[in-house]
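Exercise 7. Predict the structure of Probable beta-carotene 15,15'-dioxygenase from Halorubrum ezzemoulense DSM 17463.
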Amino acid sequence: MTEASEASRSAADARSVATAGRGADESVGDGRDADPAAERVDRWFARRPALALAALLPVGAATPLFPVELGVATFALGTLAVGMAHGAVDHLVPLRAAPGVSLRRSIAVVSVGYAVLGGAVVAAFFAAPVAAFVGFIALTWLHWGQGDVATLAIAGVDHLPTSAERWLALIVRGGLPMGVPLLAHPEEYRLVAEWIVGLFLVDGGAAATAVDPLFAPAVRAGVGVGMAAATLASVGLGYRRVRSGRDAGGWRRDAGELAVLWAWFLLAAPVFAIGVYFALWHALRHVGRLVLVDPAAASAASAGDAVGALARFGRDAAPLTLGGFLVVGAVGVSVPAGVAAPGDLLAVSLVAIAAMTLPHVVVVAWLDRREGVWRPGAGA
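Solution. The predicted structure, encoded as tokens:
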């Protein structure tokens, strides 16, 4: 049986993995009668990695004492291990998540999107590197929050029943890795910004002046106050839902993960913190979500076969994971300043990741819509 015919026959079953036990008018996020595959995926790819990150807090707290090259190496290792692969199955998402989409159409639409949107991002860095850097931070803020909200929905938490509450959770979840390091470790954060912007300036020394407004005390204070207020509001609104009868377990999990993430990004050096978070938290959660929309991998997960589910994902992701590293190489040979140091390699990798993030966000947003993650009243 071909991939296309398999997906056409069982697309509805694949989508129902994450929404099992709910009526036809309900979407992801209710949490009743959880499907075994969804429960196992949540445990394997979300809950256990979160506990692992909590256990790593003492290690993270020590990293500001070490050179930034430790963070660069950690980021590279995490990207090699799982970070690059987590978006490398995007070309199969429409095939598996929507009935009637052929393999050819799925690949063609996603490929064109990656080429057009990714090319636009790289062009933006050449034209206006500071603005492009800010855009990349904002886009990553959106995407990492988007991923965590979808994970909570798949887990069946019901203290975020409206789109407004989920958007607030997105702001908090995405802002922790992007905003909190700016408060605790602005020097290293600024160093990375200078590395990225400097790639596109003939006079590399001009990068420090170019990024200076981004690190003004008023900007840092605004981010800090905004993140603290948003966190308290999200946790407080969730607690009100619990007081009115919502399940307390999901709220406790949400609050506990927020506490771990606040501690992680306050204590750990930014490059190290992002490298570990990208691989151990964000990428793994998305891999788990993709397992649920693949009928064969979801079946393996339902049976408790984690190796089988991961092997299926790895097979699908391998070709375009290599393609992602080719994009890194293409950016590296095209930047005016060249690549001469570990910091330059990190900067080139981040620009390439930025180029792949925009189309990836579009695919994930489409999947969110298919699964009803942002539908007002979801799970109410």
